[in-house]
Each structure stands twice: as structure tokens, then as C-alpha cells.
Amino acid sequence: MVSTGYPQLRTFNSLEKIIGDPQVMDNLVKTQNEHLEKLSNLAQSKLFLGKEFLTWVWYLTDTSSSLEIPLDKKNKIKVELWIDDKILLESNGQTKEESLIRYGDPSQSAEAAIALESGKTVKELKLGIHIANYGEFTATLAHDQLIPKSLQLPVQKEDDDTYDNEFSKLENRIELTNLYMKTLDSLFLMFINERTDATWEGSQIDQIREWIKSKAQKNRKNEEILH
Length: 227
Prior knowledge:
By secondary structure, the chain is of the alpha+beta class. Helix content is 51%, strand content 21%.
């Protein structure tokens, strides 16, 4: 048999036998349906819990910005989180009121603290993620779909000749984009696990309320100092 250079082509006969096996096909269809259901559930969760998730991410950046996140069953990555130069908050009543804070360090601003204390949640923010051994990623996330916009990938070092042609650079960008998406989904699943845990309505909510309270108190102290 002449080698094609593609080992997978030589398994065609075996693949044909597998396809002809009803039991195997039933298992494949079941697995695929389960995967699609998980993706659908994830998308629905993002739609309904987007504001809570972004507010929780803000809370994380203030309280435990360095995290170890599981990418899958075997691998974990270390990340650091921060709010970049934009955060948009919105009230939850029938009349929607927004507070847009930009530039500098908006998450630590007095306006942001006041908006949080008034009950507003995050509608959109620019999130920075430093992934160990890869570098810094930034993107804008909106609450309704959590699809990153204006994604900035780590800058390639000038003396790094690993990606010395355009195709290699494109492959690297695709790899980094996939890594970012996996990290973001893992962060969201981490939130879902906490959100559905029995302790959420107790200690978790109390900790977030205490965080909001402390930001407001810090803001009032700063105002007193200025006056």
C-alpha cells in the first residue's frame, strides 16, 4: 500500500465498519446531543446571568485577582484579573439608568462605588486577563452574550523568531484566541458553580454585600478628606 502521508486515510475501512454499527452510531449521536445541550445551557446561562457574572468578576478583581482556573479535567492555569479602562453599570428597575465610567481606573472610582451602592449591576466592562506563560489579554464584555469585542492578544516579543512567517503568526493568533475563550468559559463555569451552590444565598452574598459596603465607605472617607 502506498503511503499517503496522512495516517487517518488508511483507517477508512475501519471507519466504514464503525459507521455501519447501529450501537456505535447511537452512542455517537447521544454524545453529540449531550454536547449540544451543554452548549445551549451555557448560552442560556450567559444570557440570563450576564450582569451577575460581570459584577462577580469585578468583585474578584478587588478581592482575589490571582486565581487558578481549571481549563479541563487535567489542566489548570493561573490567571490575574483586572478591570481596564471602561465599566458600564445599569439599574435593574423598569426605568433603566446607566453610569458609564471610562479611563484611568474606573473600578476604583467614586462614581462606580456610588452606582454599586445604589443597586446597579454591570452591563459592560473591559476585562484584562493575564494568563501565566502567555501574557495579557483584554476585551470588552457585554452582559447579554458575553462575546468578547476588541480582543487584544499578547504582543509578540521582537526577538521571538518562533512565528517568522504570516501563516505561523495566524496560527498563533488562533491558538491564543481559543485559549482566551476557554479561559473565559472556565471563569463563567466557576461562577455558575458558586451561583448554584447552597452557600450562595448565605455567605457568598454576604461577602459581596460587604465588598459593596466597604467600597462605599471608602468613597465617603475620601470625600471627607477632600472637604
